Amino acid sequence: MKVHVKVGDFSIGDGQPLCLIAGPCVVESKEIALEVARHVSRCCRKRGINYLFKSSFDKANRTSVRSFRGQGMDRGLEILAEVKEKVGVPLLTDVHDVSQVEKVAGVADILQIPAFLCRQTDLIQAAVRTGRIVNIKKGQFVSPEEMKNVVEKASAAGNGNILLTERGTMFGYQNLVADFRSLPILRGLGCPVVFDASHSLQRPGGLGHASGGDRQFIAPFARAAVAIGVDALYIEVHPRPERALSDGPTSLRLADLDKLLDDVVKIRRAIGPLGARRRF
């Protein structure tokens, strides 16, 4: 597997600047998507951080049938394409079914395999065969060591452009724990590693009708992951998290992003560029 992947005009991995994958959990509206993308893009440019816009056109795994799922594939992809064109940022979005893969690959730069689907061989290999980068989120029910099998599934389809994302492990009912040992273990599989500081703090089903979470720990978790050594951070952000239609409890307030990015840039500078030193 490659130790770095190229996305547009930048790369993620060994010796590369830190990358931020950020956006609202779900495509709520064109206006919110553009507001978030423009704000985060400005924050990242000021600090030399590479930026990928993330949002989902559909959230197929919401807790309740009454939960907002998104704009649907057609309208959602239209909005994502407009964000890409107007803001000039690469895109990452989820695919949930093999039937979605080709159409989504026509818009997104990175196809994401959701954590609940990380063992779905047909989905992983269909995504890989598009030639797009594929971000595979480690399932809450999967050990980091077991992700070796997932990487082998992807490799068998002929594409080494894989990212692996740590997003927490089940810790009893309605709780997750971030085991930071996972980061060097995943990196040992030969792929760039992403730490998801939002979903690692979920309380699955914790609100009964939806997932809860601990937004107040996003910043310390992100700082810790950068100190340990990751290639990218994954953070869901929203102008008004208390009004977000999905994952508000684990979305960072947009106004709080500047301070967090200042912190992680200082930490990254202190430890030196990854690849230029012994990892972990």
What's the arrangement of secondary structure elements?
Layout: E1 4-7, E2 10-13, E3 19-23, H1 30-47, E4 50-54, H2 73-87, E5 91-94, H3 101-105, E6 110-113, H4 121-129, E7 133-137, H5 147-156, E8 162-166, E9 169-170, E10 176-177, H6 182-187, E11 193-196, E12 202-203, E13 212-213, H7 218-228, E14 232-238, E15 252-253, H8 257-271
Parallel strand pairs: 3-4, 3-14, 4-5, 5-6, 6-7, 7-8, 8-11, 11-14, 14-15
Antiparallel strand pairs: 1-2, 9-10, 12-13
Helix pairs in contact: 1-2, 1-8, 4-5, 7-8
Q: Low-confidence parts lasting 5 or more residues at pLDDT below 50? A: none
Biggest β-sheet: strands ordered side by side in the sheet: 3-4-5-6-7-8-11-14
Q: How much helical structure, as a percent, in the residues? A: 25-40%
Largest sheet: 8 strands, parallel, barrel
How many distinct beta strands?
Answer: 15
Cα-atom radius of gyration: 17 Å
> Element order, helices and strands?
EEEHEHEHEHEHEEEHEEEHEEH
Beta fraction of the residues?
Answer: 15-25%
Number of helices: 8
Rounded mean pLDDT score: 92
Name the structural class.
Answer: alpha/beta
What distance lies between the first and last C-alpha atoms, to the nearest angstrom?
A: 19 Å
Q: What is the 3D shape?
A: globular
